[in-house]
Write a structure and sequence with these properties.
By secondary structure, the chain is α+β, with helices and mostly antiparallel strands. The chain is built from 8 helices and 4 strands, in the order αααββαααββαα. It has helices at residues 3-8, 11-27, 58-61, 86-94, 96-99, 108-112, 137-145, 147-164; strands at residues 69-76, 79-83, 120-127, 130-134. Helix 7 packs across helix 8.
C-alpha cells in the first residue's frame, strides 16, 4: 500500500461510511463507488483508488475489467492505481496517456453534454486503442453507435470541464 493511501485510512473513512453510506446508496443506484467526484481522475471516495481499483492495462490485455492488487500499486496522475501484475504496472508507468481512461474515467457522453459524472469500470469501450468508461449502459450504446460525434463534442468540452475539477 502506498504512503498516499495509508494517510487516507483511519477514522475519517469510518465516519464517512457511517454518515454518507445511506445517502449514497439512495443517490447512486450502482453504489457509492460509482458516485461522481470532483477529481481530474475518477477515484473511489472510500478507497482513494483510481477507477475503483481496476487495472487500466487489463482492459487492453484481457479485454475485460480486472481488479488490481495492492502489491502492484503505483502513484500517477495524482491518484493511486492498482494493477494485476508487475508487467501491467510497468506498462502504465511508461505510457499513462495510453492506458489511463480518457477524460479521467468520466463518461464521455456526459462530457460531450457538458457534465462530468463517473464512469463505471464495468461499462467500457476500447475505441481506437483508448479506454472509455461509461456511467450508463444507454450512454455506452449511444457512443458505440456514433463514437466520432461524441468524441468531437467531448474533446471540445473536456478542457473547460477539466479546469473546473480539482487537481
Amino acid at each position: 500500500m502506498t504512503a498516499q493511501r495509508q494517510e487516507g485510512n483511519g477514522w475519517r473513512l469510518v465516519t464517512a461510511c457511517i454518515v454518507l453510506l445511506p445517502g449514497c446508496w439512495l443517490a447512486c443506484p450502482n453504489g457509492p463507488a460509482d458516485a461522481g467526484t470532483t477529481q481530474r481522475v475518477v477515484t473511489s471516495r472510500f478507497s482513494g483508488l483510481a477507477i475503483d481499483g481496476f487495472d487500466p492495462v487489463a482492459y487492453f490485455v484481457n479485454r475485460r475489467p480486472v481488479r488490481g492488487l495492492a502489491e502492484y500499486e503505483a502513484w500517477g496522475k495524482g491518484v493511486v492505481w492498482c494493477f494485476q501484475n508487475q508487467g501491467n504496472r510497468a506498462a502504465f508507468i511508461a505510457h499513462p496517456e495510453i492506458y489511463g481512461p480518457r477524460f479521467g474515467g468520466y463518461d464521455p457522453v456526459g462530457v460531450a453534454r457538458g457534465v462530468t459524472f463517473a464512469g463505471n469500470p464495468h461499462l467500457f469501450v476500447i475505441f481506437r486503442e483508448r479506454l472509455y468508461l461509461f456511467g450508463l449502459e444507454s450512454n455506452r450504446d449511444a457512443f458505440i453507435a456514433d463514437p466520432a460525434r461524441f468524441l468531437k463534442m467531448a474533446n471540445a468540452r473536456w478542457p473547460i470541464l477539466r479546469e473546473d475539477l480539482a487537481q
